Amino acid sequence: MLLDFGLCKRLSSSERLAFCGLVHALAELDPDRLLASLTSLGFVFKQAPEPFDALRALLFVFRNTEPDAATSRRKMRATARQMRGRRVARREAAKEEGHALEPPAVPGVVVFFMRTVQMLQGLCTLLEVQLPFLRPFALRAQQALLAHSRETAALAPPLPPPRAPPSSALQERTLRLLHALADTAEVVGAQVCLFVEGRCVVDAAAGRMGLVDARPVRPDSLFQLFEAGSPPLAVLALQAVQRGELGLDGAVATTWPAFGAVGKAGLSVAALLEHTSGLSEVLPPDTKLAQLCDPAHMAACVAAAAPDASAAAVAGGPRHEGAAWGWALHGLLEAATGLPLR
């Protein structure tokens, strides 16, 4: 139910679930689900939407409340200036590409919803209340989506039985541990598969597929893997070392001169492979999805970026430097081999 100065809008079941999906996407920083929820609510995008812009704008709508009205107004004005600047930049980019930037058609139910959220924000400021605004919305959205998933799963046809698990004491111990972790909510769901000398000795699974996905995890369930490309990239780099195309103690910039900019001239190949380059936070602001999917463009961004010494020397030893590490290795391997890396 949405209330707006006496006006009342009752949400349909599909609208309610779409709004729950929108809020959950914001809480999980999931731009794909966010765009899917907006489309379900009736948004009509005239051009391919930029998911990070939508995520950024709606996260501001659900920002933590500010008890001081003057501070709240300052933050809103500053954000409005930033958003206007981004709109102007997008309009200029669209003009250079030969097309006009058309805003999406916003359905009325979304206008009601956003106005209700703004009223709640204003009420919190009026009452001088500070709270993490998104958190209670996200909790209720997660509960509603999980309940809907359970109802849907109960109506789905049964799946074929999973493959037979190996018979071993280690399999039983692993399975008990996974179930204990899932039952105490220490993990949502998990899989463990262990091969020893070509023989499967553990093939266990427990829990559910996601925070809002009630389907049980099976040994054959498929998950999205993050940083799955890191081991192959590292292997390619070490193979280049073995062939004499790279030296572990040599500077990256010796092979890839562009990388030597802004204090990185002495950074060695070994330091890059050890995730101590200090490049983990070099993602340029306002990077578009198409640019993120262009390794050559992102490698050039990393080459032009300054390293962060504090990020390289974190407590507890090196930590994975993420996408920037992969883009740097992409540029290094292409420079070393003279071959495109695809």
Write the layout of secondary structure elements.
Blueprint: E1 2-4, E2 7-9, H1 13-28, H2 31-40, H3 51-61, H4 69-96, H5 108-126, H6 134-155, H7 169-183, E3 189-196, E4 199-210, E5 213-216, H8 230-242, H9 252-255, H10 269-273, H11 289-292, H12 295-304, H13 309-312, H14 322-337
Antiparallel strand pairs: 1-2, 3-4, 4-5
Helix pairs in contact: 1-2, 1-6, 2-3, 8-14, 12-14
Question: In words, what does this structure look like?
Answer:
Helix content is 52%, strand content 9%. By secondary structure, it is mainly alpha-helical. β1 and β2 (7-9) form a beta hairpin. The longest helix has 28 residues, at 69-96. It is globular and about 75 Å long. The model has no long low-confidence stretch (mean pLDDT 86).
